[in-house]
Amino acid sequence: MSKLQKDDYIDLLEAKLKFIVGICLSFTLTGIIFAVLYSLIHVTQPMNASAPNDMKFFELIQPIATFLTGTLSGIMLTSSRTISRKKDEEEQAEEDTQA
After folding, report:
1. Residue 49: pLDDT over 70
2. Cα–Cα distance between 97 and 46 in angstroms, integer?
3. Structure pTM?
């Protein structure tokens, strides 16, 4: 395999990994949102406040959902190897022309 083909293959695997991880985290976050909405809408609550078990449930779910949202955005916003490789090649070309 030539150098270009290896780099393309690595970029392809990286893109597939980001896609799979992103889909898994999105489904998990969607499940959490539906569980919270279901517990708020369809479960009978006391008249003046929420049940103690529900309060503990929401305390547990809130940091998990926040972490998943941050992780998902971090994965989707990371730059790929292709962009950094192109920058390195441009810098190398500039150094070669200056020398």
Report:
1. yes
2. 75
3. 0.63
